[in-house]
Amino acid sequence: MGNVYAYVRVSTQEQNEDRQMLALSELGIAKENIYIDKQSGKDFNRPKYRQMVKNLKENDLLYIKSIDRLGRNYEDILEQWRVLTKEKKIDIVVLDMPLLDTRRGKDLMGTFLSDTVLQVLSFVAENERKNIRERQKEGIEAAKVKGTQFGRPGKPLPDNFKQAYKKWRANEITGKEAAEQCDMPLSSFYRKARRMEE
């Protein structure tokens, strides 16, 4: 048997990998063999993942907490699984899904079952990602309908804004001059002027 590795991924720098590390801690994996990326799973262009794959040798063993930690894209997960198990000839264990343990059932039936479960889980992981995005979009739309404001609150209009706006509208001054009178960037003046017209 070769070396034992683990791969951990969280989507952003702010997210915490403790949950995954806790699950892996009982396996006695050497710290230098645990690779952690704090990056989206949309593709496999992740520095620690690529470094790990480069170090993997035949008969090594790779642990991951769940299939979505490997990646989020259905086709990419299947392709990476193939590269790791067929080209690199390593074994993979997915802790959350005991059926995804390539050490078991090296015969045709075991491989078939493992591949089938992988395809289903990969599809579910990608589908969930799409559902999350759709729910976020729906939530934002619903909040906007209720009048929720997103982003920082805007600065109050300067006292002389209406006066400068009227002069600009009457073509007495340019937009740039109106913005300067109000001590604001030109783009802000136009944006606030548009809101006033609405």
What is the secondary structure topology, with strand pairs?
Elements: E1 4-10, H1 18-25, E2 34-38, H2 47-55, E3 61-64, H3 67-70, H4 74-87, E4 91-94, H5 108-145, H6 161-169, H7 175-181, H8 186-197
Parallel strand pairs: 1-2, 1-3, 3-4
Helix pairs in contact: 4-5, 6-7, 7-8
Number of helices: 8
How would you describe the shape? elongated
- The share of residues in helices is 40-55%
Radius of gyration over C-alpha positions, nearest whole angstrom: 27 Å
First CA to last CA: what distance?
Answer: 71 Å
Q: How do the strands line up in the largest sheet?
A: 2-1-3-4
The share of residues in extended strands comes to 5-15%
Q: What series of H and E elements makes up the topology?
A: EHEHEHHEHHHH
For the sheet with most strands, the description reads: 4 strands, parallel
Q: Helix/strand-derived class?
A: alpha/beta
Low-pLDDT segments: none
Number of strands: 4
Written description of the protein model:
By secondary structure, the protein is α/β, with parallel strands linked by helices. Helix content is 51%, strand content 10%. It is built from 8 helices and 4 strands; from the N terminus they run βαβαβααβαααα. It has helices at 18-25, 47-55, 67-70, 74-87, 108-145, 161-169, 175-181, 186-197, and strands at residues 4-10, 34-38, 61-64, 91-94. A 4-stranded parallel sheet has the order 2-1-3-4, with helices on both faces. Strand 1 (4-10), helix 1 (18-25) and strand 2 (34-38) form a beta-alpha-beta unit. Helix 4 (74-87) packs antiparallel against helix 5 and helix 6 runs antiparallel to helix 7. The radius of gyration is 27 Å and the shape is elongated.
